[in-house]
Amino acid sequence: MTENYKQILQDRLDDRNYERLMALPNPKLHRFVADAIKLCNPRSVFVVTDSREDIASLRRLAIEGGEEIPLATPGHTVHFDGYRDYLCNDQGRDKDNTKYLVPPRMHLGAKLNSADREEGLVEVRSLLKDSMAGRQMYVRFFSLGPTNSLFSISGVQITDSAYVCHSEDLLFRPTSSSSGSASRTTSSACSTPLASSTTASARTWTGSASTSTSRTSASTA
User: Fold this and answer.
1) 48, 86, 123, 170 - which has most CB atoms within 10 Å?
2) Do β-strands 98-102 and 214-217 pair in parallel, antiparallel, or remain unpaired?
């Protein structure tokens, strides 16, 4: 992006969240987040660390937003993906409009729906335009595998769903309970350049240093 990404971040993030993001010395990450903010136009931005307080906030917000339902067992919740009530209970994937975005001359076979990456990204960005208006954006960082290792795969996730953030804690091992500006995981997660992928149906952006293809759905949540 040609605009001053730091100015966008300063204008849209409060001091605490701006300091958290800038603690990671990765200009490509900063541009990625600024581009997502400009495109999705959230009400606010929460840059999440691995602190116990931040994780507890995500769990609370997921319940308050109706994405998770508390169970009788203290600390346990349930989430039904795509299910709200008997009038809105589609839990299936729209296979006709789910596509893998691939570079030119790459073919995944007749059974996998694919599209040109550049054309697909134009479609995804059109779906993401102002998709987070009036909502809070969450920015999280992960390291797939061990941190500070040749085998680390760095990643960043941008979403407006507290449940999506919370569910990632089931997929990735926690590596720090630090309450500082950037924990051990967040520092490691952005030590390498990021390539972006987007999922329009969940209004979620993820980036990974090893990402080669992207996935998109033409339907919005």
Assistant:
1) 48
2) antiparallel
DSSP state of 182: S
Across-strand partners of 45? 137
Number of H helices, E strands in the chain: 7, 10
CB 167 within 8 Å of CB 204: no
Cβ-Cβ contacts under 8 Å for 37 (sequence gap 6 or more): 8, 9, 12, 45, 137
Q: Of the spans 54-63, 150-159, 191-200, which averages the highest pLDDT? A: 54-63
Q: Which domains does the chain have, with CATH numbers?
A: 5-82+91-217 (3.40.449)
| pTM higher than the cut 0.70 | yes
Distance CA 73, CA 66 (A): 18
Helix, strand, or coil here: 105? coil
